[in-house]
Each structure stands twice: as structure tokens, then as C-alpha cells.
Amino acid sequence: MSAPEATRLDDEPAMKRPRRTKRAVLLTVSGMVAVALLFGILAMLRPPAAEAEGPTPLDLERMQVVRGDLVETVRVQGNLGHGTPRDMGTALEGTVTSTGAPGTVVSVGDELFRIDDKPVVLMRGKLPAWRAFSEGMTDGNDVLQLEQSLASLGFFHLTPDTRFTPVTKTAVKYWQKSLGLDQDGTIEHGRIVFSPKDVRVQQAKAKAGSAAGGEIISVTGVKKEVEVFLDTSARSLAKKGAKVSVSLPGGATEPGTVSAVGTPVEQEGADGATRKIPVTVVLEQEKAAADLQDVPVGVQFTQVKAKKVVQVPVSALLAQPGGGFAVEVTEGELVKLVPVKPGIFANGLVEVLKGDLKAGDTVVVAK
Fold first, then answer.
1. More confident residue, 2 or 344
2. How many CA atoms lie within 13 A of 226 on its CB side?
3. Angle 166-179/141-152 helices, nearest 10 degrees?
4. pLDDT tens digit string along 323-359?
5. CB 85 within 8 A of CB 200
6. Do residues 222 and 82 lie in contact, with contact meaning Cβ atoms separated by under 8 Å?
7. What are the distances in angstroms from CA 220 to CA 110, 135, 185, 278, 331?
8. Considering the chain, what percentage of its residues have pLDDT values greater than 70?
9. What is the DSSP letter of 139?
10. pTM of whole model > 0.70?
């Protein structure tokens, strides 16, 4: 019996080999088409490849040269209120029995607070009260202030001077009688407090029943004012009497005037301590801020740096290779380079001191 012949794969029975039917071929073709469509859609949705980066073209525009005043403007934030509070007290010993209510305006001859149920009174003067007043005391400007205050109240009828005379003593007695004080013609140290202006009670610093001392009430000025701090670089704007514009909450704008300029002070900020100039501004119409207290406001300072000068935007200046500057002047489709000598800078504009340039010319400006 002969050995069986070797079986080849090609000789497997047809029933055991998968047959590629027409349906299978169609499905395969459909799948390939679907994949191709999917890749096509993805290609369409994919953003185009970024072009190779190159130099960004300058965004240019044309502007006319003008002649006029070159104005510097600086805007800063300030606070609208009654000014910086300061403390008032007395050298008298005793007990605080009452203080003025917050918002009370105290003028010459008015009561500030009471010690042992007796008034401490405001008098007019820049020099602080530093001693008692009595006949035979040495002459001084504090005596002059006292007599001037007594004269304004109707108790002293001569020309005020620096001497405490019997006439002064008599005037003091009448004043003491009007207040219910002992009429001995002398004023103990601490019974009066001098102030150059009327004051407004901000708050009580000591409660009734507390011992008398140097901090009994806190006071401010009577008129509302704006406090701002200018950079020392803007010192030229900080001039007493200068006109400013004040932007109030709600959008209203009111004119104001610089009433005081202080000496530079150190202020802490995000970048450390810097020197600032304290400036006080008063509104020309105080009633415009009648309902506002301790609110932030904007203050705009304006100063004319040069009058009736030819000026162009600073961005029109082109630095020249050999030094100096020039501007590009357009005449229709032509562009020519015109050398210029810049002067004062302000608010993005520059004065043209020299150059073949006049009002109405058109220059090229980088945006």
C-alpha cells in the first residue's frame, strides 16, 4: 500500500475556505470610501499651517501738522472730604464732661468741649496757646491773638497789641461772665485753644468721664476739599491758585482751585516708598459736593507748556543715522524727509523748533 500524497493548502476543500462574495467586496470598497471622506473632512477642518514668521509691517497713518498751545495734562486720584483730621485737647486737669457732636462747626468764642462742666473755648490765631494769661505777663504774640479774638467778640475796644494791660484784664472779665466762668481776669493754661480758622468736629476721641488730655476731639477744616499727591516730576503743575477740573462720582465735573501746596513727603506704594507733593484743591461750587464725604475723585491738572507753536505727534519723529530727527511729509503720492529740531514734549505731542514744516502739512505717523 502506497503512502498517502502530501496535502497542500490549495487543495483544502472549498467548503473550508472563506469565499470573497460580491457583498464583501462592496462593503470593503464602501469602508475605504468612508475613511477617505473622513480624512477629507478632517483636512478641511484643520487650520492652515502658519506661514513663516517675518517682520510685522508698521501700522501707519497720516496726520496734519497744527499750530497752537502745547498743553500738558496730568490726571490723578484724590479724596474729597474735609481735610486731614487733627486732635485737639487741653492742658487743664480734670474730667471730660461733654464734647461737641460730630459735624459741629466751631468758630471763635465757641465751645469745643467741657472739662469739669466748664467750657474750653476756641480763639483765633496761628500761635498755639502755651501759657496762662494774666496782668503783668511778658508781652507776646499770643496776647495779640487773645485781644484780637476778644475784639471780634465785642469785649475789647482798643487796638489789639502784644501787651496784657488792665484794659485786657477787664475785657477778659466780661468774656468770662458771658461763659459763666469765675471773673478773675486771668485765663488758665488750657482754657482756650487757638486755631487760624474755624474747625469742624470730626469725632470724639475721649468719652465723657475720661481724664482730660491732649486728645479729646478730632477736628477738620470746615470747607470740603480734595487732597491729592502729585509725583515730584509734575512739580510745575502744583501752583497755588492754579485751576483744575474735578471729576465727581456720577460723572459730574466741577472746576476747582489749588489752595495749598505742601512739601514733598514719603509715601509707600507697590514699588516701595516714593516722594509725593501733597496738594489741596477746593471746589469753586462747594454745594456740588454737598452730599459727598470721603469719596475718591479724579483731579485733572492742566498747564500750557508753550504758546502758538508748530507741533506734531511724537511718533512722527524719525531718528537719523547721523543724529537729529526728521519727519516724513506727504504731498499727494510723494513722500519727502524733512529734518526738524524738537522742543518741548507734552501729551504725546512735540514742539517743532526748526524745520521746513508748517501748519496744514501732512506727516506720516506710526500708530
1. 344
2. 31
3. 50
4. 999 999 998 888 999 999 999 999 899 999 999 999 9
5. no
6. yes
7. 16, 34, 31, 17, 63
8. 84
9. P
10. no
Distance CA 1, CA 7 (A): 18
Query: Cell numbers at residue 302, please?
Result: 492742566
C-alpha cell at 286: 462747594
Q: Which three cell numbers stand for residue 132?
A: 496762662
Q: Average per-residue pLDDT in the chain?
A: 85
pLDDT of 57 reads: 52
pLDDT of residue 25: 35
Average pLDDT value for residue range 228-248: 92
Residue 237 DSSP symbol:
G
Helix (H) or strand (E) holding 166: helix 166-179
| Beta carbons within 10 angstroms of residue 218's beta carbon | 17
Please provide the DSSP assignment of 299-322 as one string. EEEEEEEEEEEEEEEGGG-EE-TT
Q: How many CB atoms lie within 10 A of CB 85?
A: 18
Contacts of 182 (CB under 8 A, 6+ apart): 176
What type of residue is 173? K
Number of residues assigned to the chain: 367
Cα distance between residue 276 and residue 280, in whole Å: 13
Domains of the chain: 60-71+306-366 (2.40.420.20), 73-82+224-304 (2.40.30.170), 89-220 (1.10.101.10)
- Is the Cα dihedral 226, 229, 233, 236 positive or negative? positive
Single-letter amino acid, residue 49: A
**CA pair distance 44, 36, nearest whole angstrom:** 12
Q: How many helices (H) and strands (E) does the chain have?
A: 3, 21
DSSP 153: T
Res 140 pLDDT > 90 = yes
Cβ-based burial of 344 (10 A; exposed 0-12, middle 13-18, buried ≥19): middle
Question: Which amino acid, one-letter code, is at 226?
Answer: V
